[in-house]
Write a structure and sequence with these properties.
The chain is α+β, with helices and mostly antiparallel strands. The chain has three domains: 7-99, Helix Hairpins, CATH 1.10.287; 118-149 and 206-249, HSP40/DNAj peptide-binding domain; 159-194, Ribbon (Chaperone, DNAj Protein, Chain A), CATH 2.10.230.10. Helices cover 29% and strands 23% of the residues. Strands 1-9-8 form a three-stranded mixed sheet, with no helix packed on it. The protein has a two-stranded antiparallel sheet with strand order 2-7. Strand 4 and strand 5 form a beta hairpin. The two termini are 27 Å apart. Mean pLDDT is 80; it is low at 101-110.
């Protein structure tokens, strides 16, 4: 996360503020500090990320509840990282910025991305923590479809270039000093259309599966230890890398 400051204070609000007020303040401050309005201004850029991070937490019921009761420590336990780059903010809130500018479109250009990380809280007895153990972790993940290899197309089918955007996958609109580049509404930013969708995943490229993962707990592990298991999170879009699984130990 970019800061440990008070999220309510960043937005100029008090605890208990309504969702309507939170969104209203975000809109005002995001436009004030938007990089298109403040070119080459590092202070404005940092404020833009802080405002976006505050809104990202407080506009989500689960994240807000966690923050209200446990603060930044609670968010970190769940793997929340905030925004380090301006590009991440623009991508996450693309639809909001289009709404603010009065532009029709689906938002910032979406590229195939790495799979999401997953967090799991694992409770251990004192004996298991002291001696080590092998534990089974039940998780639901989005895995890359094995039939279409993540492209969402039936193996016997082909991809056709989108005639709407000429294969670029983008739609650009301008309002005053602001320019927003969003997904093509016809191909959803992919630049191509499927002639026949994959039957196994309904053209999504991924499918949800239940999985029991065996995890070895080392002897002498401490309470609140966080174990990282690489590439056991959600599968990435279009066969990109999977996310990681983070196991939070509670004794």
């Amino acid at each position: 996360m970019t800061s440990s400051r008070d999220y309510y204070g960043i937005l100029g609000l008090k605890e208990g503020a309504s969702s309507k007020d939170i969104k209203k303040r975000f809109r005002k401050l995001a436009l004030k500090y938007h990089p298109d309005r403040n070119p080459r201004d590092p202070i404005a850029e940092e404020m833009f990320k802080l405002v976006a991070e505050a809104y990202h937490v407080l506009s989500d019921q689960e994240r807000r509840h966690l923050y209200d009761h446990k603060g930044h420590a609670g968010l970190k336990e769940r793997g929340y990282r905030g925004f380090k780059r301006t590009e991440d903010v623009l991508r996450t809130f693309s639809s909001e910025f289009f709404d603010f500018l009065g532009i029709s479109g689906t938002g910032y250009q979406r590229h195939p991305s790495r799979g999401a990380d997953i967090c799991f809280q694992l409770e251990l007895s004192r004996e298991e923590a002291a001696n080590g153990a092998r534990k089974s972790i039940p998780i639901n993940i989005m895995e890359t479809c094995p039939q279409c290899q993540g492209n969402g197309v039936r193996p016997s089918s082909t991809l056709q270039s989108c005639s709407w955007c000429g294969g670029s996958g983008t739609h650009t609109a301008t309002s005053g000093i602001f320019t927003a580049t969003g997904e093509c509404p016809k191909c959803n930013g992919k630049g191509s259309l499927r002639s026949l969708s994959c039957d196994s995943c309904n053209g999504q490229g991924r499918r949800e599966v239940k999985k029991d993962l065996q995890v070895d707990i080392p002897p002498g592990i401490q309470n609140n230890t966080r174990l990282k298991i690489s590439r056991e999170g959600d599968g990435g879009e279009l066969n990109h890398d999977s996310g990681d699984l983070y196991v939070n130990i509670q004794i």
